[in-house]
## 1
Amino acid sequence: MSQEIKEVPFEQALKKLETIVENLENGELSLDEALKQYEEGVRLADTCTKRLTEAEKRVEVLMKLDSGKFKTMSFEDEARSTKQESGKKKKTS
């Protein structure tokens, strides 16, 4: 089952996870069925989290340096840099 979950597209895994949560919140499942769905939900959540982490690592922003050269940096680094520059502009204004 775990191998099958890894092959499911992210959006489909997320939708299935949402359905499982609704089923569990509904409270109409037998204990055995609730446990099975809970276990599947945990696997789906883990798969979705891993895929999001992988996607975040792949996101890079191309930044142009003052020298005219280009530099790649992670999305997180770019966001921090933008915040710092924004803070500096406010102080000088």
## 2
Amino acid sequence: MPTYREVMTQIIETIDVNVPVSAAYNQWTQFEEFPEFLEHIESITQPSDTQTHWRVNVGGQIREFDATITEQHPDERVAWTSTSGDVDHAGVVTFHKLSDAESRVTVQLDWEPTGLLEKLGSASGAASHAVRDELQHFKAFIEDRGAADGAWRGDVTT
């Protein structure tokens, strides 16, 4: 039987945005701009097409980690996994065309809470609520602009 520490938490949240799927996807590929609309992200640097370094602040706790983009297909999905640092997680964001002017964005995160605060937050649903809030911020940001600030349309399969 797995110990509590070996149990991953899964979060799945979805939001509909009033922009074409390409605009939602293109904005999501601009990782270094995440701090402009995601309140828990302090910074992201992207030294290569598939490598990112994140600095996040959750509940006053600073976490830093590196992540590798493991799969990326334009207007469909971006998947990643952490490779080092304070956070053990993997995730995928999928993009679905609802109409020419509306799309659905779904985030799935699998992570291992560490420390008492993260474990309590996971058990209470606070982590899901935080992801839901961040998606609301993304929605407001992209709908206000109506178009993405940039795009990376490369394809990644590892």
## 3
Amino acid sequence: MTSNTTHTEIALGVDIGGTNTAFGLCDKNGGISHEASFPTTDFETAEELVEAIYNHLKERDLVESILGIGIGAPNANYYSGNIEFAPNLSWKGVTPIAQLFERKFDLPTLLTNDANAAAIGEMVYGNARDLSHFVTITLGTGLGSGIIIDGNLVYGHDGFAGEYGHIQVVPDGRSCGCGRNGCLETYASATGVVRSITELSSSQKESSKLMERDDIQAHEVFDFAKAGDPFAKEIIDFTASTLGKALANFSCFSSPQAYVLFGGIAQSGLEFASLVKNHMEEHMLSIYKNKIDVRISSLHDKNAAVLGAASLVWNERKKYQ
């Protein structure tokens, strides 16, 4: 995608996900002059991924234009620059990802949680530009959350605040990649939707077209639901109910103006957001009722996580201007 901007200052935004790693060259106004992606699982080590991104940009004479790098990744620690024990990545243990990029590119590099990066992107460029208190919920392979209070990201004392996908919502529930059971992301995520096909008890199950294949993806469940498949509709409502209840509980913590849904499931449209909103209001503490919006990201056609990661560079530069 070509940007219309005439600005020459460029930051490299990198979004490392459990399935794909997307990256792009971004300007201050949200224009992306070049973007690409690689399957994350193609790389046995983080070093190989960094090398591939560098070579891709070098071959196109794009490295020299970059003034800094921002990275969003699961279990990313803003303070240390490390990815630490990410359950949805094949790289186990602690990965010094910011240091690897810094060494290869010889550029200052900042790291944050992938959901935090999406929240920054939404606040600066997207559907939360009018908000100073909101939570971005990323619904991808897993579930992440980026918490904005008074216009600032909440990191906590150790850099790991906002792991809402791993709050346990069902006692002794579904097994999670984090090693525990019943985490929210095992129900409200693309992976969770697919798991519901086999794990959800329903009288509608046997007659559903979902049972005719063993390779159904989450977006197809939404397609079947829109076509009227009763079991698919039941799965979508179950997913929205689980998420809505969780958001009602989470409201007691930060009292946000809105939740902004981002990711593949959110792209299914306003109908899912409305379902989530209805279930959230049903379980909401009375003092919060009808005060909190459920919005859908306006940056799906760009890449909120890439833009958010790149905006780390702009925020850092502001401190010294």
## 4
Amino acid sequence: MPQKVVIPAPLRKYTAGAEIVELEAETIQGIIDGLETRFPGIRSGICESSGSLRRFINIYVDGEDVRFLSNLETAVRDGAEIAIVPAIAGG
């Protein structure tokens, strides 16, 4: 069963405006790889050139921040919801 990936507005330029994309993968790294295969260029909005998550990008699996789990190696179950959330700063 595919996972649902919620795409934030700033990255929808890569997905032709799609807010939700369905993919199948075993880990968050697999989800990012799948997104890049399907939507070339999207990885640069999510990851640094080193491959790690950008500082102001958070990814949640069923509401849990992957930085407090296994980061990019976090397992994703069938039917999970993955949310890519850009951090908002201001004052």
